[in-house]
Amino acid sequence: MDIKKIKILFFGTSEIAKEILEALIRGKYNVIAVLTQPDKKIGREQLIRKGLVKEFSEINKIPILQPLKLNKEAVEKIKELEPDLIIVIAYGKIIPKEILEIPKFKSINIHPSLLPKFRGPSPIQNAILAGEKETGVTIMLMDEKMDHGDILFQKKVQIYPEDTTEILTKKIAPVSSKLLLETIPLWIEEKIKSLKQDDTQATYCQLVEREDGHIFWDSTAEDIFNKYRAFDPWPGIFSVWRKENEIFRIKLTKIKSENKESEENHEIGEAFKSEGKIKVQTAKGSIVLEEIQLESKKPASIKDFVNGHKDFVGSRLK
Q1: Mean pLDDT, the chain, whole residue set
Q2: How far is CA 6 from the centre of its chain?
Q3: Which domains does the chain have, with CATH numbers?
Q4: Residue 146 and residue 243: Cα distance in Å, rounded?
C-alpha cells in the first residue's frame, strides 16, 4: 500500500493545527479536505476573520468544510468523501462517534499533554498553571469520550521556568508534527499496538475564559506568576485598582516573581516600593511589576505609570 495515497480528512482550527497540516502537506500526504471552525467576527467593528487553517487550506487549494454543527448533513458529506483516516488537532468541537468510525484506519487525535493527564480543551495552559516541569504530546485513537482513547505514541517536552503558553505551544508544535509523521505509516502497516489509558490517573482541564485572568493576591507569588505565564498571550492577567471613587481594571503585561519574604509587613494586595522596584504583596512572596496597562490605555512601564499616578504605591489591588 502506498501510504501517501491514503485519503486523510483533517480536523483543526488553531495555529498548532495549521502547523501540523503544513507538515502533512510537506510530507506529500493526500489531505482530501479540511474541517475547521466557521469564520468568527472579532473586534469592535465585528470584522469577519478566517482561521489560520482555512487560510492555509485556501492557499494550497484544499477543499474546506465549515459546518456549524456536526449533524446528519455533516455526517453524510464526510461519508461521501470516503476518508481512510481522520486526523484531529485542536478542532474545537466534540466529534460524534458516527464520524469517528467512518474511516477504515479509524480517527487519530494529537493532544498536547501526556494523557491521561490534562484531558480537555486547554492542556498547555493547565500544565503551566499547575507548575509542571514537563508535559508532552500524545498520539491517540479517538472514541466518543473526551481524550479517552487508546494511546499510540507519546513524547515528553520540558517546561522551563519562563515558558509561557505561546512559547510552549511553539515548542510542542514541531514535536507533534514529527511524532504524527512517524506514527501514520506504523499505524497503517499495523506495526504498532495501542495502549489503553489508566483512567484512575486522569486529570481534566476546562476551557479558559477571559475572566479567569483575574488575579487574587491571597495566592502565592509562584501561583500568580504561573497564571501570568499560562495566560500569555490570552486572556492575560489583570487586577482591580480603586482610586478615590473610581475603579480601574489594570492588566499586568510584564511581571516577575520574588518568593523571598518581604523586608516589611505589607497587606495582601498592597503595592509598595522596595529595592527600587514596585511590588505587590501576595500570601507568600511578592510580584514585581515591570509593565502594566490601564483599561483602554497603552501599556506603560511601571516607572512611567507611577510617575503619573503617585497614589498607586500604598494602594491595595483587588
Answers
A1: 95
A2: 30
A3: 3-201 (3.40.50.170), 210-308 (3.10.25.10)
A4: 46
